Amino acid sequence: MEVTELGPMKRALKIEVPVEEVAQRFVQAYKELNRQVRVPGFRPGKAPQALLEQRYAKAVEEDVVRRLVPDYYDRAVRQAGISPVLVEIPPLERVKIKRDAPFTFTATVEIKPKIELRDYKAPNPISLKPDTRTVTEEQLAKGMNVLREQHARLEAPPLGHQAAEGDFVILSVEGFLDGQPLEGSKKTGHLHKVGSNASVLGLEIDHHVLGRAEGDTVEISQPYPPSHPDGRVAGKTVMFKVTVNAVKIKTLPALDDEFAKDCGAYASLAELQDRLRTEMEKALKREIEEGYKDTIVKRLIETHHFDLPETLVERELEAIIRQYVQQRQRRGGEGASPLETSDLAKLRQENREEASRRVKVGLILEMVAEKEQLTVTQEDLDNEIRRLASELKIGQPDLVKMIQAGGQDSIDELRARILAEKSLDFVYRNAVIQK
Fold first, then answer.
1. What is the DSSP secondary structure assignment for residue 90, as one 8-state letter?
2. Distance (Å, rounded) from C-alpha 118 to C-alpha 111?
3. Secondary structure class of 151 (helix, strand, coil)
4. DSSP string, 24-51
5. Nearest-5° angle of CA 376, CA 380, CA 385?
6. Bridge-partner residues for 14, per DSSP?
7. Could you tell me if 35 and 102 lie in one domain?
8. Low-confidence ranges of the chain (pLDDT < 70)
9. In whole angstroms, what is the distance from residue 430 CA to residue 414 CA?
């Protein structure tokens, strides 16, 4: 093997397979072929070699090349001690092989940069400013109020009560066109919060129901432009009748022991408050830890300087854009229009810096994992699948099927993400928080 530098992160590997190995591969290929093909006039496996060469020489040559190239390429990469991120091998039709001569081919590879790790553990660990935040009494009180809101009841108001902002009304709505009911414009038993600015059948109704009492009916005239997609109403006016069937006022429960029992297996309000404080402290601890890790990532980027393989940046950029498009489609449903070429170009430009940042962090953390001999165990995979399944609210078996459906790339991506998180956690545990 000969290695030629084509640039900081490009190498040409000229690989030569010995003639003895080439000849042996040809022998094996013809043996397998003889067992598989049926030649008239000869028993299976007994066809003369010369006849097989005459008929199948080209196919056998391609088969031998197909087997030799990946085998010897892998050996060459290990021998050269490089980590390729892109491999370019000449097409089979351009590769010539003879069984009585050495076989030579050239692979061009883009490699990962050599990274000299700096300042991530003793004697030079990363130093972090302390985050001394704690859960305050005010935050605890807000948390209790959130619980009260969640357990609020809608109750009937005093007789003659008029709907005020924050009240709830139960409505019946129906549209009429030229005095006749309009199909698809009827809604009954609709619960609406006054002042929420939420529309009902496209109507802004807050100022129409404000100050109304149970049993009141109001008519709303709604004009539609000539360009409206529903031809029935385009350029016309629909009269909507809105009836207030009931008015409800929200009543918050008192903060007492009975309220605590309604919230779960709590014997007293004090026990509920203690549990809420514990949960809030756990959440704050996670938030502080994530803040520390964000600082660590920034320090790793600032203290490590190396060129990035363009292939990895492009892959990450494509992944960012693909995720953006998928989210856009989920929000817009089937009616979401495809992105214009100019929009895609703008997206690529806006996200290139972020893609480069992610690649750089990934390469640094990968090097940390290699140096500290960190690995991804089956337990790590199981824990991550449990976490993702809970976060996405789907069953673990369904999530496993989704990952497997993505093939080996999907599994490798999951492993790489877990390993990067373990590396970052290692650096965090070795950091020093200032006193």
1. -
2. 21
3. coil
4. HHHHHHHHHHHHH---TTS-TT-S-HHH
5. 125
6. 2, 106
7. yes
8. 90, 92-93, 332-338
9. 25
Question: Cβ atoms within 10 A of the Cβ of 242, count?
Answer: 24
Q: Examine the domain organization and report whether 263 and 139 are in the same domain.
A: yes
The number of beta carbons lying within 10 Å of the beta carbon of residue 236 is 17
Domain residue limits at 394: 307-433
- Pairing verdict, β 127-128 and 432-433: parallel
Q: How far apart are CA 388 and CA 376, in angstroms?
A: 16
Q: What token pair was written down for 171?
A: 């409505």
Helix, strand, or coil (residue 132):
coil
- Whose tokens are 């070795």? That residue is 430
> Residue 243 forms beta bridges with which residues?
172, 217
Give yes or no for a cis peptide into 123 (omega within 30° of 0): yes
State pLDDT tens for residues 290-328.
999 999 999 999 999 999 998 899 999 998 998 888 888
CATH code, domain with 201: 3.10.50.40
Question: Measured over all CA atoms, what is the biggest interatomic distance in the chain, rounded to whole angstroms?
Answer: 106
> Which CA distances in Å does 369 have to 78, 167, 212, 303, 309?
19, 57, 67, 18, 19
- Tokens representing 370? 């290699």
One domain for residues 246 and 259: no
Structure tokens at 362: 């990934």
Q: Burial, 124: exposed, middle or buried (Cβ in 10 Å; 0-12, 13-18, 19+)?
A: exposed
CA–CA dist 367, 73 (Å, integer): 24
Is beta strand 180-193 parallel, antiparallel or unpaired with respect to 168-177? antiparallel
CA nearest neighbour of 177 among 228, 229, 234, 225: 234
pLDDT single digits (tens) 208-257: 999 999 999 999 999 999 998 899 999 999 999 999 999 999 999 999 99
Q: Which amino acid is at 205?
A: I
Under 8 Å between Cβ of 368 and 297? no
How many folded domains does the chain comprise? 4
According to DSSP, residue 426 is labeled: H
Tokens 């660590």 belong to residue: 296
Give the whole-angstrom CA distance, residue 164 versus residue 282.
39
Distance CA 217, CA 323 (A): 48
3-class secondary-structure state, position 234 = coil
